[in-house]
Specification:
This protein has helices at about 1-10, 10-25, 25-40, 40-55, 60-65, 70-120. With about 120 residues, it is mostly helical.
């Protein structure tokens, strides 16, 4: 039984390596590992972790408490403030990009008008 518990604790990379090695050595073993990963729900858990990371959700923030409600409130307020600052900074960077794009476009149009004026005057 301890061997099964050790196998369940393997990280994602190790499971993928075992599956690939199983396919290389004897394809039914690799297929068995793949079916086990699907059946046990490990692949679903990996997908859920990736989705949470992509959405910016932290497992610590949503699932664990320190046991000290004052600290938990402070941590939540600080994380909320940081998220707001990140959002404001992202908006600022987007405005800078738009201004730069507009400036480059205006410069292109001015050069184009200048080139058309030179060909029309010649």
């Amino acid at each position: 039984m301890p061997t099964v518990a050790m196998l369940d604790d393997l990280p994602k990379g190790a499971w993928i390596a075992v599956m690939v090695l199983g396919f290389v050595l004897f394809w039914p073993v690799g297929l068995g590992v793949l079916f086990y990963l699907i059946w046990s729900g490990k692949m679903h858990a990996w997908r859920q972790e990736r989705r949470e990371m992509r959405c910016g959700r932290s497992q610590f923030r949503h699932y664990r408490t320190s046991g000290n409600s004052a600290f938990d409130d402070y941590r939540d307020q600080t994380l909320k403030r940081l998220e707001e600052e990140q959002r404001a900074f992202s908006d600022f960077v987007e405005r800078l990009r738009r201004a730069k794009d507009q400036q480059e476009f205006d410069q292109f149009m001015a050069e184009r008008r200048g080139a058309q004026d030179n060909t029309a005057g010649a």
